[in-house]
Write a structure and sequence with these properties.
A: mainly alpha, Rna Polymerase Sigma Factor, Chain: A, 2 domains, B: mainly alpha
Chain lengths: ~190, ~80
């Protein structure tokens, strides 16, 4: 999976379309957190509704990859599909008290933030294994220094400095790839 | 500057997805192929089709698939 994780979105889509099951799995893994975040954070769907939307998004993505006008556009396309399916789910009355129009309030801002988060995730995936692992454990799996230290065979006192060093590398990588994200300049 | 505190927030912003959800989505190509195989056999063998329609869950299990409600519905539609 290492080679696939470094492939571009467009390259991945092309390989999925040619029937490469491993590429499809990578596509699912690459966008799974993003899709769930849209359902949970932007539309506040219940866990059961979020799961239904999640599976529906990937089923439709699989069926309709051939309709994509530009392979580079898979990310906004998946975002739009997820939005539509979340709205459909709300309209279908899965959330009896919810108003679909009210549900759209603030969604654009949340999606901007999630887009940014996905860019950071992609940069993280391109890092060396030790940095990727330690940042993943600390920030995404919420593991303590002690747990990380035990898992990696490191004294827990050194974990903070390793995290800081890896964060610095990740920041440099993001600056290199995207330039400073001016929306969050201080 | 793109500061480290902000990067930390963004790393935390995307939730962990249950592995079972990811596996179900990742196995879509194999699942679709298995359903197509059942459907192809049903087209040429009326007895098989009748049996599969009578026991959709069993047909899926014999094809190596876990018969979730969505999959059962999908096979029913296909047949």
């Amino acid at each position: 999976m290492a080679a696939l994780s470094s492939i571009t979105d467009a390259g991945l889509v092309a390989r999925c379309r040619s029937g490469d099951d491993a590429a499809w799995e990578e596509l699912v893994r690459r966008f799974s957190r993003y899709v769930l975040a849209i359902a949970q954070q932007a539309y506040r769907l219940s866990p059961a509704d979020a799961e239904d939307v999640f599976q529906d998004v990937f089923a439709r993505t699989y069926e309709r990859l051939g309709d994509l006008r530009s392979d580079d556009a898979v990310r906004p396309w998946i975002a739009q599909l997820t939005r539509r399916l979340c709205i459909d789910r709300i309209r279908a009355g899965a959330r009896e008290t919810a108003d679909p129009e009210a549900a759209e309030a603030g969604v654009d801002d949340t999606l901007d933030q999630l887009d940014e988060a996905l860019s950071v995730q992609e940069a993280l995936e391109s890092m060396s294994e030790p940095c990727r692992d330690i940042l993943d454990r600390f920030f995404r799996r919420d593991e303590s220094y002690a747990v990380i230290g035990a898992a990696l065979g490191l004294p827990s006192g050194t974990i903070a400095s390793r995290i800081s060093r890896c964060l610095g590398k990740l920041r440099d990588l993001l600056m290199e790839e995207n330039g400073p994200l001016t929306r969050h300049e201080e | 500057m793109f500061n480290e505190e902000r990067i930390g927030e963004l790393l935390r912003a995307l939730p962990q997805v249950p592995e079972a959800w990811v596996q179900t989505a990742a196995q879509l190509p194999a699942t679709r192929r298995a359903i197509e195989q059942i459907a192809a056999l049903a087209e040429v063998d009326a007895g098989f089709r009748e049996e599969a329609l009578r026991d959709l869950e069993g047909a899926l299990e014999r094809a190596g698939l876990a018969p979730s409600p969505a999959l059962v519905e999908s096979l029913r539609d296909r047949l």
